[in-house]
Amino acid sequence: MIEFKNVSKVYPNGTYGLKDVSVKIEQGEFVFVLGSSGAGKSTFLKLIMHEETPTSGEITVNDFKVSSMKQKEVPLLRRSMGIVFQDFRLIPNMNVYDNVAFALRVTGTPTRELRKRVPFVLDLVGLVDKAKNMPTELSGGEQQRVALARALVNKPSLIIADEPTGNIDPELSMEIVDMLDSINKVGTTILMVTHEHELIRRYENRIITIENGTILSDRPDWRSV
């Protein structure tokens, strides 16, 4: 669950990232966040991940009081979420298996569990046969699927997908969103930031539109936009 109560973020130069935002996303929802460049989408995500702290207001994510949490609690918050970036952010000198396994190793997961979990998520994203390949040997769509597998491997209750289709072609974009949709159907909350209005028309999901740091609209699906 994600909840913002009257949240504002003002940067040192006086620019507002968000202005008095109140919104609630329930566990198990799939929500698209729309907005143009500079609208406030990145600030919204950074506040959820505790990369930024609010100037005012309260934020709760997965039962963590993010707006007032101690720094030592931040790793626990981030282990409860998986993050998929537009630019993949794969480790170039690690193969596919090790890129996914890295997310488990940094949390001290036992080797026995790691050897079960990594092949399982690679199978989910259709990349078992690419486990030994390096990132440079993969297409853009395959690299994004590795990034998705890495986000899934810790069994997060929340996945944040930040423009995950921005660097791949339209057909592969649908493939990635279909995968996210399937993951959502087993109870994982999905928060996907995008500017692609056409992409979301295949899905009957809630759409939050951010403009000038405020919630311009919060609609149950694209037909009401």
Give structural notes.
This is Cell division ATP-binding protein FtsE. One of its GO terms (biological process) is cell division. InterPro entries: AAA+_ATPase (IPR003593), ABC_transporter-like_ATP-bd (IPR003439), ABC_transporter-like_CS (IPR017871), ABC_transpr_LolD-like (IPR015854), Cell_div_FtsE (IPR005286), P-loop_NTPase (IPR027417). Keywords: ATP-binding, Cell cycle, Cell division, Cell membrane, Membrane, Nucleotide-binding. Homodimer. Forms a membrane-associated complex with FtsX. The chain is built from 6 helices and 10 strands. It is an alpha/beta fold and 225 residues long. The protein folds into 2 domains: 2-80 and 157-224, P-loop containing nucleotide triphosphate hydrolases (Rossmann fold); 92-155, no CATH class. The strands form 2 sheets. Strands 6-7-8-3-9-10 form a 6-stranded mixed beta sheet, with helices on both faces. A hairpin with a 5-residue loop joins strand 1 and strand 2. Helix 3 crosses helix 4 (111-124) and helix 3 runs parallel beside helix 5. The longest helix has 15 residues, at 170-184. The mean pLDDT is 90.
